[in-house]
Amino acid sequence: DMKKLVICFSRKGMNYVNGDIRNLPKGNCRHIAEIIASITDGDLFEVERKKPYPEDYRACVNESVAELKEQARPELKKMLADISEYDMIYIVGPCWCGHYPMPLATQLENLDFDNKKVRYVMSHEGSGLANAKEDLQKWCRNAEIGDGLAVKGTDIGKSVIAEWIRKGE
Prior knowledge:
Elements: E1 4-8, E2 13-17, E3 20-24, H1 28-40, E4 43-46, H2 57-70, E5 88-94, H3 102-108, E6 117-124, H4 132-139, E7 144-152, H5 158-167
Parallel strand pairs: 1-4, 1-5, 5-6, 6-7
Antiparallel strand pairs: 2-3
Helix pairs in contact: 1-5
């Protein structure tokens, strides 16, 4: 049986939700990643930037836009070094300016994706999967990238996620 891993980047605290700035005790992507891990009996690894993004939503957006423009690779709290025991890797992250946040790039580029299957989820507030697949094609070299699932921020239905997982197995 394939061993599964869920790699996520998530932002708790001030987030843009349905047109308002709201304080989330747990980021949407962390919530989605936990659902995937529980359904697949997979391991979960959360990518965390060493220097946290600003609490203030607008300041966070400005900083993440600058990182995207520079194609920065921010330092992480901890790095996952080896994924050799896994066959299927689920990647979960938010849509920031049409892309996954740069901390995911830092982590994913440092892993060996040879003979790995990758499926991905992007949470968004209207932009769908945007450039998620293009990002992963660059960062997860040699992976077999399967279908993605776009989840609008607050519409996290366990049954929708379960159905998507089942279809891809």
